[in-house]
Amino acid sequence: MSFFKKLKDKFAGNAEAEESTEKYKEGLTKTRTGFTSKINDLVAKYRKVDEDFFEELEEILLQADVGFETVMELMDELRYEVQRQNVRDTSRVQSVISEKLVEIYQAGEEQTTELNFADDLTVILFVGVNGVGKTTSIAKLAHRLKNEGKSVLLAAGDTFRAGAIEQLDIWGKRVGVDVIKQSEGSDPAAVMYDAVRAAKSRGVDVLICDTAGRLQNKVNLMKELEKVNRVIAREIPGAPHEVLLALDATTGQNALIQAQMFKEVTNVTGIVLTKLDGTAKGGIVLAIRSKLKIPVKFVGLGEQMDDLQPFDPQKYVYGLFAEGLDKEEAMELLEGDK
């Protein structure tokens, strides 16, 4: 059974998994249109797998922002696998690429893509530069957690950006979640103190904290986040339980640079990759995992509230190669009718 078929069979019969898989397919349309169509053209151009084929494939992967190190690793793996399986026909390479992409993402350290919840109150800190979709992601995550039966409270800790508090407050009302806030220009640590106290007194399950997104002055940002962390940890030992970094997928390699900078100033435990549906360079997911060793925990696959999806490498690869799977199934049906 082909890798594509195994992927589809894995999610078949599970309504929730099938719906999520379909969101990946729709959300990765731009990447798939550029990336997969180029691979299809390459397969049509070459009838046999040779070094010229590999060189052009390498260029396609680099253009998709998969990242240099990941591409080099993938090409080595592909050359070995093609030789091991005695693959001569280029049409069979797509399935091998898919399998190796999943293996590369899952290789190395054991890092869960699931959120780390505490037994009592869970505190999630959101960090990220302005304009990456951080506030929207906070609201979508709150909506998701509410639908899972958890009570949620938000903290408006980005007190420096004009309109940030009001923006989070509006989103809070939309998803039916209270927002703890102070006036613009207030000390973010004071907001966090109030929010933690309110969360404890109300007995909520999850407190999601917004923070300022200024990277212009790394020293100030570090001091600010250290103070926020200290205040939270003093009230709840072991908190924050997650530090999620929001990155805009459409910025490509710039997202990697931002991630590296935030990694230097705070303990980032996971990535929320926004606007993945808006880029043709969805390979950035693999570059983040390979270069930074930080798990992608959520991906933004559209504008709707339910379009913030937990990251699943197999669904991601399915989304990249969905048309290839559909064609392969059609070919199997045609061969079965003969």
From TrEMBL:
Record Pfam families: SRP54, SRP54_N
Signal peptide: none
GO biological process: SRP-dependent cotranslational protein targeting to membrane
Gene Ontology CC, one term: plasma membrane
Keyword Nucleotide-binding applies: yes
Cell compartment(s), UniProt: Cell membrane; Cytoplasm
The UniProt record lists the keyword Acetylation: no
Sequence positions that bind GTP: 128-135, 210-214, 274-277
Keyword tags: Cell membrane, Cytoplasm, GTP-binding, Hydrolase, Membrane, Nucleotide-binding, Receptor
TM annotation in the entry: none
Residue span, SRP54-type proteins GTP-binding domain: 295-308
InterPro entries: AAA+_ATPase, P-loop_NTPase, Signal_recog_particl_SRP54_hlx, SR_rcpt_FtsY, SRP/SRP_N, SRP54_GTPase_dom, SRP54_N_sf
EC number per UniProt: 3.6.5.4
Bilayer topology annotation: Peripheral membrane protein
Gene3D superfamilies: P-loop containing nucleotide triphosphate hydrolases (3.40.50.300), Signal recognition particle SRP54, nucleotide-binding domain (1.20.120.140)
Family the entry assigns: Belongs to the GTP-binding SRP family. FtsY subfamily.
Free-text function comment from the UniProt entry: Involved in targeting and insertion of nascent membrane proteins into the cytoplasmic membrane. Acts as a receptor for the complex formed by the signal recognition particle (SRP) and the ribosome-nascent chain (RNC).
Subunit structure: Part of the signal recognition particle protein translocation system, which is composed of SRP and FtsY.
HAMAP family for this protein: FtsY (MF_00920)
Protein name: Signal recognition particle receptor FtsY
Taxonomy of the source species: Bacteria, Bacillati, Bacillota, Bacilli, Bacillales
Gene name tied to this protein: ftsY
